[in-house]
Amino acid sequence: MGDLNKLRALVESAGESVQAKILYIAGFLHRHGMITGIGKALLKEMLFQKDVRGPKLIERLSTATDEAWLKYIHRLIDVETLKLFDSLYMDYPLEHGKAISRQEREEQDLLTEKSLIYGEVDYLAFLHTLRKIPIEPHWTFVDLGSGTGRAVFVARLNFDFAKCTGIEILSGLHAAAAEVCANYNEFVRSVISTSTKPLEAAFFHSSLLDLDWSRADVVFANSTCFDSELIWEIADKAVALRSKAYLITFTKPLPDDAPFDIIDKERRNMSWGPATVYIHQRR
């Protein structure tokens, strides 16, 4: 972590220029690993939008403790990413996703197929889980059974993953996620990117068992309603993940003989109620 007194000196040297000060702040915090590249982009966007919080964060830098000021910066960035997330899902609230899922399962006589029951992550709870993993900018994220894509966009908007991917077998949910992704590419992607890194998001209409996700660094399966056979099949495919890769499951951990260690276990609230969240790491 960088010395914030050095940042204070840089900001002081910028004179009266709010623009220069915010650019110094954004660059310094990102360079020293205190914020993500996305956080850097959002601070710069605040400058371009002439946001009134810009002068406030400059003022607080000189008056607040390091801890309090960094907490303020992170809170500011979190508020902005949540706004972007909510803007993507204006047309697809949770109830809409549930309706799409139920209609398709009824039409295909799949209502008794428990593994297809719809459930979405809680934004803040899943963000809390992902923050327990030391994510690197070149990593990739894959959601197995991605629904309308909410977990994918929690990952996409908050971390510098090279690519975030969702795999969904129900065509209606996949179509909804694809539309959200189109809106992301048109309206949001340029806001959170400050470099040539593409910050990709992609969705595939497929069974999670049919696609190769062995190169992923962080894999997520909302497995609360998965049966034992599907858990075993996921574990079997997950053996191909690299050493130290992560696999997150809900309610049900991987089988004991899978070559993974449970490095974190925590009860969190999701859209359907509480679930135990397991973070596994490949041996």
From TrEMBL:
One BP term from GO: regulation of cell cycle
Pfam hit, one: DOT1
UniProt KW Glycoprotein keyword: no
EC top class named in words: transferase
Keywords per UniProt: Chromatin regulator
Catalytic activity: L-lysyl(79)-[histone H3] + 3 S-adenosyl-L-methionine = N(6),N(6),N(6)-trimethyl-L-lysyl(79)-[histone H3] + 3 S-adenosyl-L-homocysteine + 3 H(+)
A GO molecular function held by the record: histone H3K79 trimethyltransferase activity
Residue ranges of every copy of the DOT1 domain listed in the record: 115-251
UniProt EC number: 2.1.1.360
Name assigned to this protein: Histone-lysine N-methyltransferase, H3 lysine-79 specific
Organism: Aphanomyces euteiches
